[in-house]
Specification:
Radius of gyration: 19 Å
Number of strands: 9
CATH topology of the largest domain: Alpha-Beta Plaits
Largest sheet: 5 strands, antiparallel
Structural class: alpha+beta
Oligomer: single chain
Helix content: 25-40%
Shape: elongated
CATH class of the largest domain: Alpha Beta
Order of helices and strands: EHEEHEEHEEHEE
Number of domains: 2
């Protein structure tokens, strides 16, 4: 089963390497990893999707992530109500007579054509992993030349930020925490 973890980490060099090394040492495969700054420049947010045999293995990941010095908070959001998205840029072989077909597929998936070249188009699609996969499968017969995906990002629904205050962690400033 796939488990999704959200980790808040200090925005410092080497943190990503330490997190990836932890997964390597524990022999867990990272299915998806997305990292970016949060609303606070000194904090980054990692969304990590990993395949785990059971809840015990997932709990081990969460516990071991907490042991890393630069990790502020970790939350397993696998069973929580979340909004999750994946972004893909897909370069498709498309001569002028095929562009309407690609445009129709893009509109069905609420995707956008973000670049047009003489012999290809780049389609941007955002949505659940299943939606992105569906778009890829329909574009595949036309000839996918290149593709890049961001990996899954996730955020819990509602006002719950999912942030737990660790012992010794200073109280966050502002009401939005």
């Amino acid at each position: 089963m796939q488990y999704t973890f959200v980790a808040l980490v200090e925005n410092k060099p080497g943190v990503l390497n330490r997190v990836a090394s932890l997964f390597r040492r524990r022999n867990f495969n990272i299915e998806s990893l997305a990292v970016g700054r949060t609303e606070k420049a000194e904090i980054s947010r990692m969304t990590i999707v990993a395949e785990c045999e059971d809840d015990i293995a997932a709990r081990k990941i969460e516990t071991n992530l907490y042991k890393l010095v630069n990790v502020i908070d970790v939350q397993d959001v696998s069973r929580q109500p979340v909004v999750s998205r994946d972004l893909a840029l897909i370069k498709v072989k498309a001569l002028p007579e095929q562009r309407a077909e690609v445009n129709n597929l893009a509109s069905i998936f609420r995707a956008r054509i973000v670049d047009v070249a003489v012999d290809s188009l780049i389609v941007e699609v955002t949505g659940t992993e299943e939606k992105v996969e569906g778009m890829v499968e329909l574009l595949r017969p036309l000839g996918i030349l290149e593709m890049v995906r961001t990996g899954q990002i996730a955020m819990t629904r509602g006002q719950n930020t999912g942030i737990r205050r660790m012992p010794g962690m200073e109280e966050p400033a502002g009401e939005d925490w």
